[in-house]
Specification:
Elements lengths: L6 E8 L6 H6 L3 H6 L3 E8 L6 H7 L3 E4 L5 H10 L7 E4 L11 H9 L5 E11 L6 H18 L11 E4 H7 L10 H11 L4 E8 L10 H16 L18 E3 L5
Parallel strand pairs: 1-2, 1-4, 2-3, 5-7
Antiparallel strand pairs: 3-8, 4-6, 5-6
Helix pairs in contact: 6-9, 8-9
């Protein structure tokens, strides 16, 4: 059972997700977490949307940060760099309602029981609902996952998942080394975490059809993911890492109190 009196911070990168973001925020098991005396903190990173994604997220109680630089990597890194220091566990999931927030207990339990440092939600091992993943995406993901297992020697089955969980200490160890700006960020994080000797495992999750339009370009973004896989084969952690500033001047921060 999960221990009590701990804090979970969830980072949700979004671009034009006004159709889905309210459903995502409302689906978190707030009552169950409260019964366990766990504190839930949701950070929505609005990647300069041209709809009212940010306003809706504020209305439903999330803290909202606006990141004007386009790209999932920019949005996710901005959110992760603003995770409060009193956080015990950090989750990230996409804001398109493809991943279910009620499965956060499955993501957190291996961390809380000290089984590993990082958890990936595996769609491949789990339940992929009809129409939620194309055959091209499934084949590409299987290939990338096999390559990462073989060359990086880490036990994962879904390297392109948008559902991650970290111990806060593991996130702090990884974060200074990540600079990706786009959809290649998951590959960048995973391969560098493997080089940092973090314990990484996968758990099965469910995957649903997205709400709204997909921003992924299978060919262009798939090529960037492959290049990042190759680049990181020769990457080694520097012996001394200068701590990066937690706050960037390139974004604005809002909260429900200031809305």
């Amino acid at each position: 059972m999960l221990h009590t009196r701990k804090k979970v911070t969830v980072v949700v990168p979004c671009y034009n997700e006004c159709e889905a973001i309210a459903k995502v925020i409302r689906a978190f098991p707030k009552r169950a977490l409260k019964q366990l005396h766990w504190k839930l903190h949701i950070i929505v990173v609005d990647n300069n949307s041209n709809d009212n994604t940010g306003a809706i997220a504020l209305r439903y109680g999330a803290d909202v940060i606006v990141e004007p630089r386009k790209g999932k990597g920019h949005a996710l890194l901005t959110g992760l760099k603003n995770v409060p220091d009193d956080t015990d566990y950090v989750l990230m999931l996409d804001g398109d309602n493809t991943y279910h927030p009620r499965e956060i207990f499955r993501m957190i339990e291996p961390l809380d029981s000290k089984f590993c440092d990082v958890v990936l939600g595996s769609r491949i091992q789990g339940r992929i609902h009809d129409g939620s993943m194309s055959q091209m995406s499934r084949m590409g993901n299987w290939l990338f996952s096999f390559m990462v297992r073989y060359f990086y020697h880490t036990n994962v089955t879904d390297v392109l998942t948008g559902y991650f969980a970290w111990k806060k200490s593991a996130l702090d160890k990884m974060l200074p080394h990540i600079e990706s700006s786009g959809f290649e960020i998951e590959m960048d994080m995973l391969t560098k975490m493997a080089k940092l000797d973090l314990e990484i495992f996968s758990v099965p999750i469910s995957y649903h059809s997205r709400m709204g339009d997909s921003k992924l370009n299978h060919l262009a973004d798939g090529f960037k993911i492959f290049i990042k896989f190759l680049e990181n084969l020769s990457w080694q952690p520097p012996s001394v890492v200068v701590r990066q500033s937690r706050m960037s001047k390139s974004y604005q921060r809002f909260s429900p109190e200031r809305a």
